[in-house]
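retry 2 of 3: previous attempt timed out while embedding coenzyme A. Reduced batch size to 1 and resubmitted. Inputs unchanged:
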Amino acid sequence: MAGANKSGGLAGVTAGSTSLCTVGKEGAGLTYRGYDIYDLADHACFEEVAYLLLHGKLPTKKELDGYVSTIKANRGLPDALKTVLEMVPANTHPMDVLRTGVSFLGNIEPEGDFASQNKVADRLLSCLPSMLLYWHRFHVDGVRIDTETDDDSISGHFLHLLHDKPPKELHRKCLDTTLILYAEHEFNASTFAGRVITGTLSDMHSAVTGAIGALRGPLHGGANEAAMALISKFKTPEEATAGVLGMLQRKELIMGFGHRVYTTSDPRNAVNKRMSKALAADVGNTTLYPISEAVEKVMWDEKKLFANADFFAASVYHFMGIPTCLFTPIFVCSRITGWAAHIMEQRSNNKLIRPAAEYIGPGLQNWVAIADRK
Ligand code: COA
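retry 2 succeeded.
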């Protein structure tokens, strides 16, 4: 059928343009606004990357200091939001908590005029970790935490709220780096969902709420939690190899492997893998890293499938003492930058996103009165 996407899932279809990111582009690889991901991971802090995505250029020292102060100043939660978070049941998945939290924030702090879109983006970047950890600590530890800390970085703030003490620098730095790696990835499913919502001239909270819903699934952001569930099942690398071989024979998906755009490797994996090894040594865990490596090897040997950004992110977070159910929400705390930048880009040259469908249903039917139907 003319125009139909034969392989499904819009694979290979160029659905718009962006100046934010290249993914696997020949001669460029993964870049944010022209900067190589490895340079950003090695030299930048997450707030610098957030500024780059949201403001279009790397900040000067003065601009970065100002931006860090703005983010710090916006971490407080309104009482009404705290009340809602306390009412969300303890057994809710934290992704659903963030979805509700962002949606509710849109009620009490509506965006209104698009002229305030940068303020809304900064507010969400600041308060997503607060929202998540206020709910988490309330339900897990039975305490109402103060979400305003002295930590300059979002990574430090996150780990401080979670563990009730400032983190080790190695842990903070590793979390910061994963936030950089997760920040932006072109027209992935959640970003595209956000752009579709934005295309109707809806507000930023609605677009982000929808994006969180898309990110939640295990084929997208939820893969980091699923990868943790997988590696936790095995006690030794040998057991992991045999277990994954069995899963492949049963045609089961191995979460944290494969990618729609990359064909031979995900550039983010090398960085996550290096951090996983360093953190394993730091916390004295001698099993999880070799198990992860064994899974990676068997996936490559058997299927030529490579670990994506989510696979080693799982052990990185685990080694820092982060509960598995918070892995995908951390992705949200980072990707809010890419989502917001895409929302602004979509608005800057908006066109309603409304593709066509190939009709595969029945031909014209004769109307049958209800009494005559069989
Ligand atoms: N485990 C086992 N097999 C996999 C696989 C995985 N993680 N990823 C892809 N494959 C297989 C598919 O079963 C399919 O095999 P077939 O041709 O025999 O049917 C083939 O590789 C092509 O995969 P397909 O599902 O068509 O690719 P896609 O582009 O539609 O999907 C993903 C991309 C990311 C959704 C897919 O690789 C996947 O489900 N990965 C696991 C979830 C994940 O890690 N998501 C995070 C992505 S960053």
